[in-house]
Design goal:
Elements lengths: L2 E6 L3 H17 L4 E6 L3 H4 L18 H9 L4 E5 L11 E6 L7 E5 L13 E3 L3 H10 L4 E3 L5 H10 L5 E5 H7 L9 E4 L12 E6 L3 H8 L4 H16 L8 E8 L2 E8 L14
Parallel strand pairs: 1-2, 1-3, 6-7, 6-8
Antiparallel strand pairs: 3-10, 4-10, 5-8, 5-9, 11-12
């Protein structure tokens, strides 16, 4: 196989991740030609849909059209932010590789350089994630949390232009992949270490057709097994809890002494936290 076609969403971040995948594949296979096909997903087009409310559009919101292209054979592999990928894949598809994970932390982008502690009493912070909202309010019950939609540059622009917003929570991996220039002048990004990430956050997954050994062999050259073990444990927990985007689950798997250790945060409807699970 001399040419491989990647499918990706059209956002700036998705394209950056596709370029990263293509560069790694071409480094591993110098004679391989990697092409990229941009595919619009429901999540990119339906900005009126709340990500915090469970519903028929939640499952596969950012992946369905990519998976349809895979099954139709118009692309060879789909590039996903793993945290967007449902835990149950369509029949005939599988994960061909998971890249080494970037920093999975969440960051607060705000007008002050000192992060969460510097926000004034009653400040307004934007996020579309129930997980981020639940953990943020555990840390700062005084804050007002509002919903925001749009890709990363759009969210940053809304923060910069709207004086009623004091901060915005985003994934550090996405900001890093987009580059330092993505943050508008006058805004500062600070890691919020006390907030646990979404399952798979910071990892890029490559989905392909089951049994397509030529593609799988190419993808396996950039697969990172320790990352895969950690994120699989995180996704297993998400699957056990029956959750998706609307579940306020924070979880981080780390590889320690040949096993995965999970740190978890989950608020049940009665406000009880899920206890930390060790040694998965």
């Amino acid at each position: 196989m001399t040419t491989l076609t990647l499918g990706t969403r059209g956002s700036d971040l998705a394209r950056a991740q596709a370029r990263l995948v293509a560069a790694q594949l071409q480094a591993a296979h110098p004679v391989l030609t990697v092409k990229t096909e941009v595919i619009k997903t429901t999540g990119d087009q339906r900005l009126d849909v709340s990500l915090s409310a469970p519903g028929s559009l939640e499952k596969g919101l950012f992946t369905k059209e990519l998976e349809e292209a895979l099954l139709a054979g118009t692309i060879d592999a789909a590039v996903h932010s793993l945290k967007d990928l449902p835990t149950e894949l369509p029949a005939g598809l599988s994960l061909g590789a998971i890249l080494e994970r970037a920093d999975p932390a969440d960051v607060l982008v705000s007008r002050t350089p000192r992060g969460l502690d510097a926000l004034a009493q009653g400040a307004t912070v934007a996020t579309s994630s129930p997980r981020r909202k639940a953990q943020l309010l555990q840390l700062r019950p005084d804050l007002v949390v509002v919903e925001i939609r749009g890709n990363v540059p759009t969210r940053l622009r809304k923060l910069a232009e709207n004086p009623s917003l004091d901060g915005l929570l985003l994934a550090k991996a996405g900001l890093d992949r987009l580059g330092a220039d993505i943050i508008p002048e006058g805004l500062h990004a600070c890691v919020v270490e006390a907030i646990l990430p979404a399952p798979g956050q910071g990892a890029i997954a490559l989905e392909c057709r089951e049994g397509n050994s030529a593609v799988i062999d190419l993808l396996q050259a950039i697969h990172h097994e320790e990352t895969a073990r950690c994120v699989e444990a995180e996704r297993d927990l998400l699957r056990e809890l029956g959750g998706g985007c609307s579940l306020p689950l924070g979880v981080l798997g780390t590889w320690e002494n040949g096993a995965v250790r999970l740190q978890t945060f989950w608020l049940e409807p009665n406000g009880v936290k899920l206890p930390e699970r060790l040694g998965v």
